[in-house]
Amino acid sequence: MTQLCTPAPASAADPSRRLRIALVNQPWDYSLPPQQTSLSIWSYQVARVLADTCDMVVYGRKRADTPPVEAHDGVTWCHIRDRWDSRITHWLERFGGRRPITAPLVASQWYGREYATRVARDIAARGCDLALVFNYSQFAPILKRHNPNLHVVLDMQCEWASQLDRTMIARRLECVDTVVGCSAYIADKVRQRYPHFPGECKALYNGVSPAQFAGAPATPADHPRVLFVGRVSPEKGLHVLIDAFARVVERLPDARLDILGAQAACPREILVDLSDEPRVQALGRFYDDRSYHDHLVAQIERLGLTEHVIFSGFQPHAESVKHFRQAWVLSNPSLSEAFGMSLAEGMAAGIPVVATRVGGMVEVVDDGVTGRVVPPDDPAALGDALVQLLGDAELRARMGQAGRQRAIDCFSWQRIAGDLAALAAQARTTRTEPRP
Description:
Number of domains: 2
Order of helices and strands: EHEEEHHEHEHHEHEEHEHHEHEHEHEHHH
Distance between the termini: 28 Å
CATH topology of the largest domain: Rossmann fold
CATH superfamily of the largest domain: Glycogen Phosphorylase B
Structural class: alpha/beta
CATH class of the largest domain: Alpha Beta
Shape: globular
Helix content: 25-40%
Number of strands: 14
Strand content: 15-25%
Number of helices: 16
CATH architecture of the largest domain: 3-Layer(aba) Sandwich
Strand order of the largest sheet: 3-4-2-1-5-6-7-8
Radius of gyration: 22 Å
């Protein structure tokens, strides 16, 4: 197998050399624009910030038009070609038999195995100090096998670590040095489920670019506008938001709801079937012969909201800014949410946000200061909060200003990158012999 990188690494014990950090995207994520997901945006932004002080390498899936390795913005970008992983996945889907609910295909030790092995060998050649891996715990043993002294960070951006088979995850955590969650909510769930894990569990938030959203939002006086940003998927609670918006229109007849996001429903087996939350389990009703989008369209027609709700579809991240600038309020009505990226973006854009009291969203929004937090699956409470903000320009301005400052202080890429660099520096300082 061809190695991506061949230079002999300098001594990892040399404290004078720059830290070497690897960011390992999910095996189906592209590292570079334009085909980025929220997680590959995370690695892209953090790597570019840290490139001035650290040697950064980012791994992701190879596009047809990209070379295996390229360097720009001071970062090395390694693109892994899919040779066998997709074939193995297809074979497992077809012939692998019925899998336990708590061990779906994406959690299999074979899922993304070629990708992880090629990444692990390249990291060994580069002599990295730390590797951060998104979500896929099965990559940790592979990384450690090729890099016994590597500090492996498992970055959980979802609840898999606390939902999947306990014995399977515990075994993989033996090869993990630190677990970070995109919120304290996620990190705490891992610690509670695996109290004997010897490493640290802590929050490492997702980030935003405040400069990208700079400038006061444009708010057409004759069209109060609520913005939703995210996948059109049952756990995002759009059906609740539409019920709430019917209440908004009763009091503000010219209001509009802009839904910005792709029609990409989360597979039932990694959402409804894994969750122990009744409100998430109840979402099974949307997995029938109709898509979730079709359910929403029928709901909109039934409520007489056809002229009030706009499906804007997916738009590249950079182009979505115009929707934020046209919005009066941003709402995330999710029923399951690890962090709530759109909330941080809404605050960076200087608009108030309305979230539900779910998962990590309560860590993002300062209730009553940068927006409102309401109970989940409660159209009445959500509708009342939206009406209050849409009807009070002074309150919107005050909350919008406070939200932007909070985004700068807590969720800027400089802040997130600095937290990761501190973790890497501490890991090198306290490095011990590999675990037996």
